Amino acid sequence: MAQITAIISGKGGVGKSTFTAGISKELSARGKRVLAIDCDIGLRSLDLLLGCDEQVVFDWGDAILGRCEAQRVIIDCSVDFAAAPLTDDDAFTAEALSSFIREVAPKYDYIFLDAPAGVGKGFELAVKCAKKVIAVTTPDNICVRSCSLAIDQAEKLGITDFSLVVNMFEVKPVTKKRLLNLDECIDATATGLLGVIPVDRILAFASVTGIKPGEFSPSQQAFYRIAARFEGEKVDLVCE
User: Fold this and answer.
1) Residues 79, 34 contacting (CB under 8 angstroms)
2) pLDDT class of 240 with cuts at 50, 70, 90
3) Scanning 12, 51, 121, 211, which has the fewest C-beta atoms within 10 Å of its C-beta?
């Protein structure tokens, strides 16, 4: 059965969906069977990041509402993908989404639920359907504090397995105390560090175009390390 992980953040704009796409692709490249599910009802974007927006015909809401079979929602792109509905419905409950996930889960090793920023309905749907949470933040006070609040909320919803990813990390602003260092991010969220993704203009370009960063780009090296650590391998947090 698949390991189901929700990807959360406090504030928007920290690169949570970009991270979801990145780790999904990296684990797929390692031979794992991966499904990425967008949980941002009305504001989905993961289809664009995975480069399969033109392939979306059905979303998981259609399966819940009986408009199609669950397997027809799954799109085969860079990784398998299920889109979020464009409009909300009272039928979209955690129990209903969990039922959809259980139906499609047997063929996968990993399922990632890309939660919307904040702690609203989409956040609760993703977290209630998951067993683990990866929280994504940038190393600034505002995003780290909001990330900590999101982690607290996920804990209230029953999650006990947390890890932290610090995105858009840059040494120079940290040394000048304009941004938090890694220890400060860990202390503020009380969460173990899974990985660090450096500032990388190539990754920003890839987020817009859907083109994968080169093998030796800083962000791609970071995703390689994060995927390895996620699978339990002992590798460095950051590139030397």
Assistant:
1) yes
2) very low
3) 211
